[in-house]
Amino acid sequence: MQVLKPTEVIKMIPDGASIMVGGFLGVGTPACLVDEIINQEKKDLTVMCNDSAFPDRGIGKLIVKKLVKKLIASHIGTNPETQQQMIKKELEVELVPQGTLAERIRAAGVGLGGILTPTGVGTIVEDGKQVVELDGKKYLLELPIHADFALIKAKRSDYLGNLAYSLTARNFNPIMAMAADIVIAEVEEIIPVGAMPPDEVHTPNVLVDYVIVDGRR
Amino acid sequence: MQVLKPTEVIKMIPDGASIMVGGFLGVGTPACLVDEIINQEKKDLTVMCNDSAFPDRGIGKLIVKKLVKKLIASHIGTNPETQQQMIKKELEVELVPQGTLAERIRAAGVGLGGILTPTGVGTIVEDGKQVVELDGKKYLLELPIHADFALIKAKRSDYLGNLAYSLTARNFNPIMAMAADIVIAEVEEIIPVGAMPPDEVHTPNVLVDYVIVDGRR
Amino acid sequence: MDAKTLIAKRIALELKDGYLVNLGIGTPTLVANYTPKNVNIFFESENGIIGMGPIPQEGMENADLINASAGYVTALPGSSCFDSATSFGLIRGGHLDVTVLGGLQVDEKGRLANWMIPGKMIPGMGGAMDLVTGAKRVIVSMTHTAKGKPKIVKECTLPITSIRPVDLIVTEMAVIEPTKSGLVLKEIAPGITIDEVLRNTEAHLIIPENVPIMKIE
Amino acid sequence: MDAKTLIAKRIALELKDGYLVNLGIGTPTLVANYTPKNVNIFFESENGIIGMGPIPQEGMENADLINASAGYVTALPGSSCFDSATSFGLIRGGHLDVTVLGGLQVDEKGRLANWMIPGKMIPGMGGAMDLVTGAKRVIVSMTHTAKGKPKIVKECTLPITSIRPVDLIVTEMAVIEPTKSGLVLKEIAPGITIDEVLRNTEAHLIIPENVPIMKIE
Fold this sequence. Notes:
Chain A is an alpha/beta fold.
């Protein structure tokens, strides 16, 4: 793990990259990293995130700035801009049930080829997917979602990169930390190695490549 | 959640029940609950556990007492009694790769119909299983493992049943707590409600039906 | 009593001691205000918390602690937080006793549509598909009609949320239970006649001999 | 230098700064004693810890802290603990840089057999199948022969652990690398001739023009 500045770490992301971004309606989203993506005008991004938050918050800002080519999310209802761009075909949106989104990201992170979920069977989510019947019950075969980069937000890190999250700001962050080639964590503080008890580490250090400290706190 | 004595809680388990038991070579195994099963001579059990530990430790004791009809585990090498009973056909053993065992138990707990894993492809673990090919890579379709009872061991509980585990005694306990009809936790102490920070709860209280305190500590 | 209060009060009667309950965005959240006395309910929010408490006093908000509508909430003593995969594991794995959700339509098979109006409003399904598919009991909280048009219909014209039928529909006019034989009128609201319910319902309703009036204080 | 020490020292040279490494039961654990200076390795044990340290001083053991052989270990500052699903998620998900495992046989395709001898010894695969299938790099640590019989064979007669070929075989006689063209003799031990290696190997070995001697201090 290496501690870098937001400018340095975002420089590594090329236009057209796929990035996972933690957060639920902006809470648990790495705000500094998102702002730096906007500063550096990264284009044609594929973004995986639970939702597109609000026009002025979370990854909603990336949508408003039209930096996103494709969005994979479970909910876009709180950001009118997302639906507008989708209707104008400026933005491709793949809507995924939230539990399925979590399992697909997890599957990529833990090396599974896919999972069978009852969610979405017999709905339009089934379209184009393989249906597997087991013991008379139907399931959709859902495939892993992997990304080039994961941008996650934790409360704190130690100097090895072990992460601890806070309350409902945990959400998608731990599973995204396993499902991308490069993992960048934004934290509020970095504490000494050994100051985080082993039982309270939420994401082990070996998963984290870079840590940036949110200077605004 | 209800706090009971080992005698009371084990009384609920009928002969022939399927029980998951936490632990890795005995560490993280609820020793009091195992001893009480022996006291009450529960018979014809189907036991799911990582391993059969040692003849005098963990679920190894259940094997020695011949209370187990079927064992689903990843490793039986440290308890010679297991292999002997298996060869004499007194005990049915299903050997499952450890990561697959974890995912199958988790799948039952989180409502998945199955998972696709590369582990075991082209080995004897593949026998009788469906092979699914995706993008030229083969996976085994592995099915959920559910039990009537889960007997787990935590370091502490609060009076609502929230659990926290200790170091490598966590192992299979959290996933088993999701995968059984009735969950019984053996703990070393019960602490006041509110004394366990929300971010440090490893198993939420709603999963736990009964708690017993190990009186020997 | 206004329609929303009536619905919330009636649904509150369905919640029993020790239940794990998810309340959907909007009107369903009102149910928490009317839970019976001496009944301990654990409210969860799919963004990752069990033991969610009421809105905090002004000045006591925590930026990391929100409900699924991004509103600030509190964490009661004994609450626990977890990631999105675990959260939906609890939901899809059958650990959630009740979910209360809003509805756009429910049809004679008990199927709910509540996540999009094609060409008009595409907020995405968020957690709804997992909640309806996975909860032990699904209760729909909705007005009986929208702009004078029945919402309880022969067959959903909007995309359904799950093929799994809901367990109870509560409106300001009636309590209706989907059964294998069809929709059964279980109760009517104070001051409403069976004829009025029938006039405002497109679906066929089975009318038992005795249809009691909702018992609301 | 005895065979075990030689093998362990040679394998230790394969470990690089920041690596996450799993050492199998038995001889592989010796590798930890010879890691290069100024190189920070994170040792994990599949029972749920990263940052495992050496055997504790007498009297400083903790009953909850063992390695995968049930031996007491220590937890270094910055260590983290997790459940078995996460542990094997790290292994199968490609987050483990190196696993070092013992072997019964390796064949010309680089396939390892190390988990059972039918009719004789059936310990179970434990974590071996996931480790060989999922680790980025698999290194086999074994004696070149067993009771005078070659262990590097044309085709495994024992049940294989995975179809995934291992990356390196280190014995007290040689370092051999499975490649698409076959097994390549990369290095020979001090005092050993190529002829001796060939006499003790059943599989065909590709012999490059220059076969250096292992650089062991």
